[in-house]
Amino acid sequence: MYKAAVIGDRQSVMGFKALGLTVKFADTPQQAADELHSLAKNGHAVIYITEQLAASISADIAEYLDTPEVAVIPIPSKDGVLGIGDRELHSAVERAVGADILRSPDEN
Fold it and tell me: What is the extent of the structural domain holding 18?
């Protein structure tokens, strides 16, 4: 069975434990990268990571972009939203469909 996990600072991700997700605390980019690779190796199909950490380990996350077994999804942290999740979603849709169909007509 596939599992889901979340990586981030304690305050941002602790609540996910109540939902049954595996929770891994990381305060540095190296800790986040290590946890990401460990979770991916151990059968976690969905890995949420706070946007602040995701921004600092983009090369590690890129290793899983075209891997159907692992989805790495940036989420906001206690520090707010950086917009990384939205950009990643638009990019994924554009790769799959061939055009960014999510962009509103007034955006250029």
Answer: 3-79
Closest residue by Cα to residue 65 from 39, 89, 31: 89
Supply angle C-alpha 61, 22, 24, rounded to 5. 60
Is 99 a member of any domain? no
Predicted TM-score of the model (pTM): 0.76
Instruction: Write the CA distances from 108 to 63, 85, 94, integer angstroms.
Output: 29, 19, 15
In contact, 72 and 44? CB cutoff 8 Å:
no
pLDDT digits (tens, 9 = 90+) for 61-71: 999 988 889 98
Rama region for 52: left / alpha / beta (φ>0; ψ in -120 to 50; rest): alpha
Residue type, 39: L
Tokens 């169909």 correspond to 101
Residues pairing with 74 in the sheet: 49
What CATH number is given to the structural domain containing 56? 3.40.50.10580
